[in-house]
Amino acid sequence: MTVATTAARRFAAITLCVAAPLAASCLTARADATARRPGAELFITVRTAAGEARSMRLTCEPDGGIHPRPEEACDALREVDGDIDALPVDDRPCTFLYQPVRAEVRGHWGDTETDYARDFSNACVMRRHLSPLV
């Protein structure tokens, strides 16, 4: 083995000894950052059968985003620990007019991924089930 080959091997070994702990700490920090997500970030979309759509972004902790009532929506979700199906249903009556709408909520509530989609017979029925989220 030549002196140049031995020196190159030593340099490579030293480089690996220095770089390996740094790379491991970076990977661990990345995994920790993605594993613990505080608060919530939800993208809410309401679509009509006519193809019209409106979208909102809701963040909780801190409450905000592009949403008309973020504090009210976040408070309602906190009451049910982010379970959209568990939101209380308003008992006000709605008409039997059939104008279907679809509500979709995607994002995360803390560490839990949220992927909610439901069709409603009209906007009134949707609001009864999802207010103040929509």
Strand content: 25-35%
In sequence order, what are the helices and strands, one letter per element?
Answer: HEEEHEEH
What count of structural domains? 2
Find the CATH superfamily of the largest domain: Subtilisin inhibitor-like
Distance between the amino and carboxyl termini: 73 Å
Please mark out the parts with pLDDT under 50 across 5 or more consecutive residues, or reply none.
15-20, 22-34
Judged by helices, strands and strand pairing, the structural class is alpha+beta
| Percent of residues in helices | 25-40%
Strand order of the largest sheet: 3-2-1-4-5
Number of helices: 3
- Major β-sheet annotation: 5 strands, antiparallel
CATH architecture label of the largest domain? 2-Layer Sandwich
Q: Short description, anyone?
A:
By secondary structure, the chain is of the alpha+beta class. Helices cover 38% and strands 28% of the residues. It has 3 helices and 5 strands; from the N terminus they run αβββαββα.
Describe the structure.
With 134 residues, the chain is of the alpha+beta class. The chain has two domains: 36 residues; 94 residues, 2-Layer Sandwich (Subtilisin Inhibitor). 38% of the residues lie in helices and 28% in strands. A five-stranded antiparallel beta sheet has the order 3-2-1-4-5. The termini are far apart.
How are the SSEs placed, and which strands pair?
Blueprint: H1 3-35, E1 40-48, E2 53-60, E3 64-66, H2 70-79, E4 101-109, E5 112-120, H3 123-130
Antiparallel strand pairs: 1-2, 1-4, 2-3, 4-5
